Amino acid sequence: MEVTGRLLLVSNRLPMTAKVDRGHLAVSQSTGGLVTGLRRAHEHMGGSWIGWPGDVSRMKEKHRRELEEMLQAGGCVPVHLTSEEVSLYYDGFANGVLWPLFHQMVDRIPVPSLQWDAYRSVNEKFAEAVVRAWQPGDIIWVHDYHLTLVPGMVRARIREATIGFFLHIPFPSPEIVCTLPWCDQVLQGMLGANLVGFHTFTHQSHFASCAQRVLGASTSKYDRVRVDGRKVRLGVFPIGVDAQTFGALASDPAVLDEATSIREDAHHESILLGVDRLDYTKGILARLLAFERFLEREPQWRGKVRVVQLAVPSRDKVPRYRLLQRQLNELVGRINGSFSTVDWVPIHYMRRSLNERQVAALYRAADVMLVTPFRDGMNLVAKEFVACRSDHDGVLVLSEFAGAAVEMGEALQVNPYDIETMARTYAEALTMPGEERRVRMESLRHRVFAHDVHLWTTMFVEELALASRKETRPEDAMSPAVELDALTLRLRAAKRLLLLLDYDGTLVPFARTPDVAAPDTELRQLLAKLAARPGVSVHVVSGRRRGVLERWLGDLHLGLHAEHGYWWRNRPNEPWRAVPDVNVDWKPDVKRILDETAASTPGTLVEEKTASMAWHWRRAEPELGAARMESLSRRLDDELRGSSAEIVFGKKMIEVRSRGVSKAGVLARLQAQGIVTAATAVVAMGDDRTDEECFAALPAEGVAIGVGFRATAARYRVATPRAARALLATIANTKRT
Ligand code: ADQ
Fold it and tell me: Which of 345, 351, 394, 471 is the 20 to 30 A CA-CA neighbour of 484?
């Protein structure tokens, strides 16, 4: 698909790093797979790259100006951060809280709210920069956990923007994410996008469950979330590496020479290689403990194998990273201390960054690549290693908890928490026959080259363009204001007007439990005002019990119809009357079934009424509630075959009611009572299936108004109870013409 429009990339860091060297400004391009992939899209599609250029506070004014010009020439828009912001937002919240939490390490809660405040305000800064740079037709692509709030903030300002968000790290299960006090805001922020991308389906499905539980969003097939009337697509986009570039690098004679000299320096011992950012999620300590165990188990390998561990220091302002550095030094010292001989040192630990050529040479020199994170979004090292092995040799040992494990089934997969098995796997890798190594590596290479970072970028951007085109925006789906204006004009002209109003979901939003949705003062005043208008009669038609309606609305001049019209009274102080001759023999059996279901589904409850019974699952765990609803409806179908009751599906509830009682019956009754005549303009307003029955029974000139986002036969639609009230208010407030 051809995607047109500029690309606005948004990431914490810009792809350029600036420093002043001997009085001159030096700007270097960042390398690395992700940047390479995004840079190509950036150049191809045009647009801007928005991000932090690093600390410029100590730069002279002239260097700063020079930098701004260079950034501008490279299509970059800087977001400058103070050192306090960097400390609280970047080191504090993003790397000190979200990073461990999303990698399932829940030990940073409670969190100082100062850090959260800084995170919010820095996200605000980024969002403002995006809004300033945005032009109609642009595609905005926000990256990673530093900027989860940006999509929502941009959406709030530019409703029609096309926004994508990609999470490069795992998204953990709801139990873990929910420990974050601001979890709802993080979710809302990410859901500001049209498309939210993850490396694996597990991350995606965790996110969907979380949106259901925390925000009450509805999801379907885990790849669509509906929230605030918007549809957000979720998708799995496993990132790749720039395989061609790595492949070419690893076949470069100079790189191959370097690989040869690495092997010679290693006295042709077998090499187990680790290449990581120095991060506690990467499992470096456990990897070395397993090596120690391997040397204990397999003494014949002593003197014949070494671990080369390259680790680039990272985030060393965060205390936990400094602790890891200390632990690693100690562990390497201990293992080397106990096993080294005069001419053999088991672990060669390099705490530094190497350039891509040097890393490629190491990949070529290694016999076994150890990629053993405790948790990792994807892990690019595993793919870079494979891309470099044009000799079709080398064994990859890969943690089953890296996102890469899903795609790299031919690797020897390990559980990094299981030291003993890891040690055995090292032995297996070192003794794997050449033919098996070749077969596994060829399959891995096929995939790594086919699914490279460029394909990843293209697929995400295309899917994003599609998702934003498909999203039915609330203002598109709902009745346009001009139509609603014309409608109110018409209703105002009617001599007699009957309003049949549903309550829950129509006049008030759904509450956590049915009992707490009492009308607020604004609603009571609105209903009173409507009912006071000459020629207007207002009837509330609800599935609720009559006692509740009487308590909440009984003093107003309204007609009330409870239990979908089974109980009714047209005026205050009139006695309630019931529809005669309704058979309720089915109730004891249905009650037993509903009670059993409620007992085995925590968070659900049974509501018993005179001629109906409902099972509510709004507060259940969403997946369990939905599954139980399906089995319950099958059970009830069997039970009620040929009986005098029927099943009605409401929102997060199933109701069984006696046949012959429905909201359509209310209208028929009012007609029979002469309250509705041919001259009456009838308006029915409602949000669920029971209201559809009433819509269907309206006279030809009747007006149906659907509330909310769902399929409806209503001619008019408004998005929320708030919008429904606004419409009623225009009828109540305006003078009759
Ligand atoms: P990272 O956690 O940074 O990325 P990873 O995917 O392994 O992890 O990428 C690390 C990169 O740094 C690789 O390109 C590697 O070559 C390079 N590197 C590591 N050590 C180095 C060293 N000593 N010298 C030079 N280069 C070194 C996050 C997520 C990952 C996800 C990526 C991309 O945590 O899970 O794969 O984003 O989405």
Answer: 471
